[in-house]
Amino acid sequence: MTVARDRSAADAERESIEVDLLLEAIYRRYGFDFRQYARASLRRRLWRRVDLEGLGTLSALQERLLHHPDCMERLLLDLSINVTSMFRDPTFFRAFRTKVVPLLRTYPFVRIWNAGCSTGEETFSLAILLREEGLYDRTRIYATDINEEVLRRARGGVFPIEKMQEYTENYQAAGGQAAFSEYYVSGYEGAQFDRSLLDNVVFARHNLASDRSFNEFQVVVCRNVMIYFDSSLQDHVHRLFHESLGHLGVLTLGPKESLAFTVHEDAYEPLDAAEKIYRKIR
Ligand SMILES: C[S@@+](CC[C@H](N)C(=O)[O-])C[C@H]1O[C@@H](n2cnc3c(N)ncnc32)[C@H](O)[C@@H]1O
After folding, report:
1. Alpha helices (H) along 133-176
2. Phi, psi angle pair for 143, to nearest 5°
3. Relative to the CA of 210, which ligand 1 atom is closest?
4. From ligand 1's centre to the CA of 229, what distance in Å?
5. Digit-coded pLDDT (tens) for 137-170
6. Would you say the CB of residue 42 lies under 6 angstroms from ligand 1?
7. Taking CA 137 as the corner, what is the angle to CA 135 and CA 139, rounded to the nearest 5 degrees?
8. Is 175 in the pocket of ligand 1 (CB under 6 A)?
């Protein structure tokens, strides 16, 4: 049952305090920091979890979260929207091929941070592209996400068979050079992607809101992640990426994301402004 929630100003104020307390509790108990996520969608997701757990209030949810880590895992899935696909936004991957790959050829070894990789479709897409460009063998991709469950699925490399038509079209539109079906075998559980595409991939849990940088990279791919963050958390993550990128390193964002009005707006120049591909210049 969904409880009706018409809110007076006083109710809204009280609810806002309850949300603050709940997020603080999650942060202290588990270290996941959602305190600066955009509020409207966060609030919707929390109430949805209240309903799904058969509870009536946010404080009841807080109580359950504190004592039941499995409830926290469920909420984590609710809060981190994991929608993704292979060669998502094919024009981006085409631009990566034509504008970023030539820069990468100048390095003896390439480190890429795929932050917010979700279930791995983006990581596999990068691996396929780099292999076709003859760069994969000297690349290491660090693919990270806050959510252990999506990482588990990413390591499995099995994606829904009914998606293969769409992914094949994306791959071709992105400038793919082979028959896409060469990269997977169809099985009972879905399309199992070539395991060797993961030879140079490390999947690891990393929270952009609270964890530090862990290497120096030539490329950071972080697409469709920061749209869920408020501007101060976006600034924090941009600081993290700026310190993680080497000189002339490349930062790529999602179509609805931008460097404009962030702390590091002037530290990059566009390599392809429409595809949100930037190069660090200072
Ligand atoms: C919409 S998916 C984007 C996946 C992929 N980058 C793409 O564009 O298709 C957003 C991902 O960001 C992850 N995420 C959300 N908050 C995060 C955080 N604080 N640190 C790391 N990853 C986070 C979510 O778990 C989710 O898998």
Report:
1. 148-156, 164-173
2. -105, 120
3. 19
4. 11
5. 999 999 999 999 899 999 999 999 999 999 999 9
6. no
7. 70
8. no
Give 265 Cα–ligand 1 centroid separation in angstroms: 22
Centre of ligand 1 to C-alpha 7, Å, is 31
Determine the Cα angle at 278 with ends 274 and 282, to 5°: 150
Q: Residue 65 and residue 189: Cα distance in Å, rounded?
A: 32
**Nearest Cα to Cα of residue 86 among 16, 166, 5:** 166
Residue 237 falls in which region: left (phi positive, over 0), alpha (psi -120 to 50) or beta: alpha
Contact 37, 66 (CB under 8 A): no
- How does residue 1 score in pLDDT terms, banded at 50, 70 and 90? very low
Assess contact for 205 and 155: CB atoms under 8 A. Answer: no
Mean pLDDT of 231-240: 93
- Sequence-separated (6 or more) residues with CB below 8 Å from residue 44: none
What one-character DSSP code corresponds to residue 109?
A: S
